[in-house]
Design a protein that fits this description.
Two copies of one chain form a homodimer. Chain A is built from twelve helices and twelve strands. Chain A has 322 residues and is an alpha/beta fold. Chains A, B: Keywords: ATP-binding, Kinase, Nucleotide-binding, Transferase.
Chain lengths: 322, 322
């Protein structure tokens, strides 16, 4: 029996896990990460923690097939470097793979973008476990995503699956990427909050929620969604606009990729079936019939574990490929 | 030295070609097709023509690696059937592969959608010959396309790459697919003609071209494009609207797929560099910077030969895969 190591890197901690070959976790834990001194302690700390756990399990590194790791930033898959992961201190091309090699010798290490490994996770063990063609869309502070086609991650030249930056509104709100009207500016938690605040303060809609905005209260996206569910006029208008725009984006994805499942994750997806129903309605009305007929839109199932599971699944996929 | 057979099926004729292994055509010719009697003579006629040509070249079927064929309609790749190819008389699942097997015995035959093989053609020998990540968009009566990722055709569950049915205008003009506002209703030859006629007859723009529409003249898309190039106010307005919408569609594709090249083909692309410049400008202003930075938008190079070359290239790709 062989084992697989999954790592999901984040700005304050890394989630680590030891899996069996069928991706059942036998141990999952966290290690603190710090961007201090350009994040040079991150990999050594992770390796130390891994070695201790492997020993504790009565195993040896040679019992493991490889390490899969999800990281923020831009990944150079060939060189094994990560660039622009500012919350890790890895601003310029940080040689992650080389660092692992230095510490572990010739041991297989695969690095992938964190949004992409989350998609692999949902495809391996989550809401899309029974299909080879799926898209994960995560609605958090931004909008992220990953695409699996024929069981393989779609990477393009380097950064395919940048779903958050698909244009939803030409000349729309400015996006952090430098472009305008990206779906991220509308359907992310940030986007939903901005829409609600704008409409409330400009008195476009009057409602209890609008009143709270006018009073200068600090209102969470959960409160906006809850208000919408309870029939608040502002909440409903905002969610209709945000999910209307996201529904069209999903319809574009369905046309281009013809997936079997589109999985919605991230904090905003805590709105649950209410969100899915809104998206379903827009997709139903606006998607090329052959590509919409068998399409399912579903809530993500793995929450924060998607990344570490997907990172481990990457090891299996890359081994199969080579 | 081995050879490859390429076939590009059309409603009035099939283009056939015999290629070397590096996809140089040693012979290219046409065979009439007819939808008569549910198109049952099409495959036997093609096989007869192929056998005669192979004999004439002093070859044997065993000198050939396989047949690749592009067909209109929906392809079931596993079963080898074609459905809904009305101009061939193949309305319901027609057993194309079985028919070839009946006539040729156990000989490799690969069937693919005609828009997809055209993309493979441009990727093998045309405008995108040096990249593994490309998209072909053809602007004809409709808008078609095909997507190659990591050197492989993107198929999704069955019909990925339905670029013509990506939504360009929510609640826009009705599309033949049953949906509304597909890019096909705006940027195809039909769409451009409709836009021009509408704007002329509703006197939205006055110009020599608008006058000709009002006189009830029969005006070609070429005439509209030429008028635009010569500064006609209506022509310019129409092309700006059509290419503006298509540019946003290309920007969506760049975000999702991160291709190195997007290739524009079909009759409307005869407008040449003028078209590319318009698209480039829109993509430049509306695309996620990392995915636009190295993206090239180019004219297709192979014209009507793209399909038959791509069909042959499919044989090489499928052999490599298995």
């Amino acid at each position: 029996m062989k084992f697989i190591i999954g790592i999901d890197l984040g700005g304050t901690s890394a989630k680590l896990a030891l899996f069996t070959e069928d991706l059942e976790a036998i141990k999952m834990w966290q290690v603190a990460t710090s961007s201090e001194d350009h994040g040079w302690k991150i990999v050594p700390n992770i390796v130390k923690a891994l070695q201790a756990e492997i020993l504790k399990q009565g195993l040896d590194l040679s019992d493991c097939l490889g390490i899969g790791m999800g990281s923020p930033g831009a990944i150079d898959r060939r060189k094994g470097t990560v660039t622009g992961a500012y919350n890790l201190g890895w601003e310029t091309a940080y040689p992650v793979k080389e660092e692992f090699k230095h510490l572990l010798g010739d041991f297989p290490v695969y690095i992938e973008n964190d949004a992409n490994v989350a998609a692999l996770g949902e495809q391996a063990k989550g809401a899309a476990a029974d299909t080879e063609n799926m898209v994960l869309v995560t609605l958090g502070t931004g909008v992220g995503g990953g695409i699996v086609c024929n069981g393989r991650l779609l990477t393009g030249q380097a950064s395919a699956g940048e779903i958050g930056h698909m244009i939803a509104k030409v000349d729309g709100p400015p996006c952090t990427c430098g472009s305008k009207g990206c779906i991220e500016t509308i359907a992310s938690a940030t986007g939903i909050h901005r829409l609600a605040e704008e409409k409330a303060l400009s008195s476009q809609v009057e409602s209890p929620l609008a009143k709270r905005f006018k009073l200068g209260e600090d209102i969470s996206v959960k409160a906006i969604v809850d208000a919408a569910k309870n029939g608040d006029a502002l909440g409903e208008k905002v969610m209709k606009e945000a999910m209307g725009a996201l529904g069209i984006t999903l319809s574009q994805l369905a046309c281009v990729l013809n997936p079997e499942k589109i999985v919605i994750g991230g904090g905003v997806a805590n709105a649950g079936q209410y969100l899915i129903d809104q998206l379903q309605e827009v997709v139903e009305a606006n998607t090329y019939p052959p590509n919409r007929r068998h399409l399912k839109i579903l809530l993500a199932q793995l929450g924060n574990d998607a990344g570490v599971i997907g990172a481990a699944s990457l090891v299996l996929k890359e081994r199969k490929r080579s």
